[in-house]
């Protein structure tokens, strides 16, 4: 059976798979562009009231495809795709839920900070090893993580690179609900159906008030991307990324 990660509209819920187009649990340039396009379209589609992000079976997402960042000729196009996806997520006007069943690493974890609810199976883990790679956090999580986890929790998570289990992630506020293994998607779709039945204008207005000024997030995304690009000019960082890419191959 061929792999098909195309978005699927179920009632008023758009189900989006976070993965590469060749079936790997990572995000590459094509996947970043596809996600951005999907969210752009969903933002203006009245049939879509809620978006649910899901990963592949047994793994949410293992992060970005670092092998692409080793080719300097692809940097400009890749950075543009990453920036567009993050900015689209930050300004998306409708509820976004995530169902995590397994590992959420790197960008596969930072994307969750833009979700209104994260529902995880009990075996799920969360890790952001950016500092270990010589990089800074992305997706405006340098703002969102302290807001959600508190400064001390965000510092431990990002600077120490601690791996959080589902219970720890819920205690810190990253995860809203924990469910039995294999049932996270069903639970998220149930919550999505609840939200889709709400009066649309009141739901969107309330969410917008809770989110606040998303322009601040976009400015921080640009700042993080600039630091990320600078890190790609550092030989030591590139050697780290080369080792990671070899291990992942």
From TrEMBL:
InterPro entries: ClpP/crotonase-like_dom_sf (IPR029045), ECH/Chromodomain_protein (IPR051053), Enoyl-CoA_hydra/iso (IPR001753). The keyword Ion transport does not apply. GO terms for molecular function: delta(3)-delta(2)-enoyl-CoA isomerase activity. Keywords: Isomerase, Peroxisome. Coiled coil: none annotated. It is found in: Peroxisome. The keyword Isomerase applies. Its main location: other. It comes from the Bacteria. PANTHER family: ENOYL-COA DELTA ISOMERASE 2, PTHR43684. This is Enoyl-CoA hydratase/isomerase family protein. The lineage of its organism: Bacteria, Pseudomonadati, Pseudomonadota, Alphaproteobacteria, Hyphomicrobiales.
């Amino acid at each position: 059976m061929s792999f098909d990660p195309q978005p699927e509209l179920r009632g008023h819920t758009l189900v989006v798979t976070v993965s590469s187009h060749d079936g790997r649990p990572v995000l590459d340039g094509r996947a970043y562009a596809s996600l951005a396009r999907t969210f752009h379209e969903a933002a203006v589609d009245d049939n879509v009231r809620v978006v649910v992000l899901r990963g592949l079976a047994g793994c949410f997402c293992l992060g970005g495809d670092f092998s692409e960042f080793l080719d300097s000729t692809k940097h400009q196009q890749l950075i543009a795709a990453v920036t567009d996806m993050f900015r689209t997520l930050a300004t998306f006007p409708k509820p976004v839920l995530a169902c995590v069943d397994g590992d959420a690493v790197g960008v596969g974890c930072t994307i969750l900070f833009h979700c209104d609810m994260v529902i995880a199976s009990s075996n799920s883990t969360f890790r952001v090893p950016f500092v270990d790679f010589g990089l800074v956090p992305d997706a405006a999580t340098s703002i969102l993580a302290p807001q959600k986890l508190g400064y001390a929790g965000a510092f431990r998570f990002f600077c120490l690179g601690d791996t959080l289990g589902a219970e720890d992630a819920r205690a810190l506020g990253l995860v809203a609900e924990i469910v039995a293994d294999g049932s996270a998607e069903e639970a998220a779709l149930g919550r999505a159906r609840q939200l889709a039945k709400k009066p649309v204008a009141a739901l969107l207005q309330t969410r917008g008030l809770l989110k606040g000024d998303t322009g601040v997030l976009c400015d921080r995304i640009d700042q993080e991307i600039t630091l990320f690009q600078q890190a790609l000019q550092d030989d030591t960082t590139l050697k780290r990324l080369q080792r990671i890419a070899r291990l992942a191959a």
